[in-house]
Structure formats: C-alpha cells, structure tokens
Amino acid sequence: MTRFILRRLGSAIILILVLTAIIFLLQAVSPGDPVKAYLGNNASPSAVAAERQKLGLNDPIILQYLHFLGNLVQGNLGISYRTHRPVMSDLQTYLPATVELVLVAFVFALVLGILFAVSGALRWKGSAYFRGPLLVLAVAPPFLLALGGIVVFYSQLGWLPASGRGGNAGGPTGLLLVDNLLSGNLAEFGAAFQHLLMPALVLAIAPAIAIGRILRSSLETTLMAEYVRTAESKGLRSITVFGKHVLRNSVGPGLSMAGLQLGFMFAGVVVVEQIFSWPGIGNYLASSIPVSDFLAIAGVTLVLGSIYVVANAIVDVLQAMADPRLNA
C-alpha cells in the first residue's frame, strides 16, 4: 500500500508540473497585455515598457517559466493586475467561500447519489417518485436550475435567500458553518446554511445522478454474484449481506466517479457563484478574465487543477483500500 501511495503522489506532482507549464504557455500566447491591465489603458508607452522590464516580461520564455516556478514554490503567485494585491492574499480571501460551497454540495451529491443507487438497486417501493424528478432536474443546465430556484424559493415562496453568504467569515477557518458551530452561534449557523442550501443543491444535482447511476449499476451486478446468493442461502439478514458483501464490493466505481465529479464541481462553480453573488474564487476569476489579469487567472486555475489532481489521487487510494487487488 505504501508503494502505491508513493506512486500516486509522484504522479500527482508530475501532473501539477504539467499544469503549470500549460498555464504559463497559455499566458505566453494570450493576445491581451497584462501590463496595460495593471497600469491602465491611459499609461504612456514608456511607462508600459518600464513595467514590462520590471516584471521580467522581456526575459526569455524559459527564464520566465523558471522564475514563475520559483515563485510558486515560495507561495508567491505575483501581484494581481486588477486588484493590485498579492494573488495569494486574494485567494485566501475568496477560496474559503468556494470550498464551503463545494464541500456542502459534494455531501448533498453523495447522499442523493447513494439514495438514488440503493433505492433503484433494491427496488424500494415509491422510489420512482424520488428518482424521476431528480433525473429531470439533472437534465437542466445549472444556470437554469439556479434561476428557477431563485424564482420559486426566493421570489414566490420566500423560503431561501437569493444571494450572498449570510455573514462575514471572521473565524479561524473562513468557513461560516464551521466557525459559527465552533463558537456556538446557532442563529448565524442557520442563516449561513440557508444561504448555502440553494446554490449547493444546484451544484449537486447533476453529480448526484452521475454517481448514483454508476453505483446502481455496480450494486445490481454484485447482487447477482454467486457469493451473495450463497450468503443469503445461509440465512444471513439482508442488511448484513448488503453491507458486508454487496456494498464494499460495489463501491469502487462509485468512488471513482465521485472523485471526477468533485473536480467538475470546482470547475463548474463559476456560473453558480455569479448567479447567486457568492463571494468565491469563481467570481474572482470571472472578474479577472475581461482585463487579462493573467496572474489571478493562473492562480485560480492552478488551485482548481491541483484540487482536481489531489482529489483523484485520494480516490485512487480509497479504492485500493476497498479492493487491495488494485495496488498490486
């Protein structure tokens, strides 16, 4: 198992290095001028030339890339051309909101996906009334679900807020749910959860169906296996057979899909954050693209890409723990 973990760690590091190279090359071929974005369109040509020299943009591209990597290792992502603040500071400000949104959405996706899979595989009575609407909602694009949710649950019913986080992240983690729970402030915890509920569900529905379909197919295949029938013929309780023999041998494909969907959720959070005015890195990225703020774009892309790589590495390790044959 240790060798397997080290191999996956090495692969993750290589993938992240490749990602940094791709990000840097995209910046090199970008038609936008980041210096003008930093100084403003009214800056004189001499000021632009001096700033390019100061930022090292006139150096050979290999030297620029090595400088980029060196700063990256030190946690220095440069100064945002738009906010004029360190990109790392901006990410520390905006990232907790995105992490909280995606983690809550991921929990929703896992719960809904498992219910979808188990209810379908075991043919629970009335489960079609749950799975049918979920399938219909999963077909709609997230922006349409978001707009529909705002119209129904905010404008018409007044049950849920339509924007914002519901408070300021002043605690140690920057996660409102965690910080308010640690401080015992249940009123603020409830308000934060209300603000999270609608965007998290919008983000969770499509991944829930993807996870649920894969897990259901795996469960149905395992339920037909001979060793499961043998366990049932020995008189073991159905719940024991399902938990001990069926679920563990079926969870691998579901875990793999969950890892992929977690990465997709971080990638798709930009649209959801804009619609719900969620103060996360999705909104930060959307504001940085029109002004060619490459360092900010690179920082967000690198963070999201690294999360995707690490999440899939963790999933591979969990799969190997569930099925030791995979790390052979």
UniProtKB/TrEMBL annotation:
Q: Which GO terms describe its biological process?
A: transmembrane transport
Q: How does it sit in the membrane?
A: Multi-pass membrane protein
Write the record's keywords in alphabetical order, separated by commas: Cell membrane, Membrane, Transmembrane, Transmembrane helix, Transport
Identify the Pfam families for this entry.
BPD_transp_1, BPD_transp_1_N
Spans traversing the lipid bilayer: 12-30, 101-122, 134-154, 196-215, 254-276, 296-315
Q: Give every ABC transmembrane type-1 domain span.
A: 95-319
- Protein name listed in UniProt: ABC transporter permease
> What organism is recorded for this protein?
Leifsonia tongyongensis
User: What taxonomic classification does the UniProt entry list for its organism?
Assistant: Bacteria, Bacillati, Actinomycetota, Actinomycetes, Micrococcales
